[in-house]
């Protein structure tokens, strides 16, 4: 199985949605050789979402796309967004490759599931990351986006938003949300 890492620093954190296919999400889900997108980070609930998707959604001929977003900026306690240095971003990309191999690629390889790995730089807040996920879903023409809910309290969801909520509302593909 091949692993492909894509990095596109030219992508704006505020992506415009474009129509890439006239298919509805139902038509995508019914076709053979589907693409299944799984946004991941180094969390147990993401691993659970991947395993559940492999057990219940995946069928022979499908391809799994693992997507991890390395943020351009992270919020500090003061509410100011701080951009990591290029060296810090490179370190974050290498850390992402390492945890994706340890956590996810081993699972896919053991089950002989075809996969691609996408490590995308961009975003910093929930909506920006959600836009990147929806954009990649359109780009790979995914039939399903399977993601973990990353349960947060109401205040945290209000203050920082929810990437999962954004994807449920804006992705053209069917979004499967796994709750732990």
Automatic annotation (TrEMBL):
Segments passing through the bilayer: none
InterPro entries: Rossmann-like_a/b/a_fold, UspA
Pfam families per record: Usp (PF00582)
Residue span, UspA domain: 34-178
Polar residues bias locations: 15-24
Ranges where the record places region Disordered: 1-32
UniProt-recorded name of the protein: UspA domain-containing protein
Organism this protein belongs to: [Myrmecia] bisecta
Lineage: Eukaryota, Viridiplantae, Chlorophyta, core chlorophytes, Trebouxiophyceae
């Amino acid at each position: 199985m091949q692993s492909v890492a894509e990095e596109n620093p030219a992508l704006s954190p505020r992506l415009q949605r474009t129509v890439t296919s006239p298919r509805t999400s139902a038509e995508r889900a019914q076709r053979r050789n589907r693409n299944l997108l799984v946004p991941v980070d180094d969390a147990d609930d993401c691993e659970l979402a991947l395993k559940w998707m492999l057990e219940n959604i995946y069928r022979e001929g499908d391809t799994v796309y693992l997507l991890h977003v390395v943020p351009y900026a992270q919020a500090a306690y003061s509410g100011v967004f701080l951009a990591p240095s290029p060296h810090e971003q490179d370190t974050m990309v290498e850390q992402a490759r390492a945890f994706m191999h340890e956590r996810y690629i081993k699972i896919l390889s053991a089950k002989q599931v075809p996969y691609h790995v996408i490590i995308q730089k961009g975003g910093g807040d929930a909506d920006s990351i959600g836009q990147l996920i929806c954009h990649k879903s359109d780009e790979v023409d995914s039939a399903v986006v399977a993601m973990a809910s990353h349960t947060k309290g109401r205040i945290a969801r209000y203050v920082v938003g929810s990437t999962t909520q954004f994807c449920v509302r804006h992705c053209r593909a069917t979004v499967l949300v796994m709750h732990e």
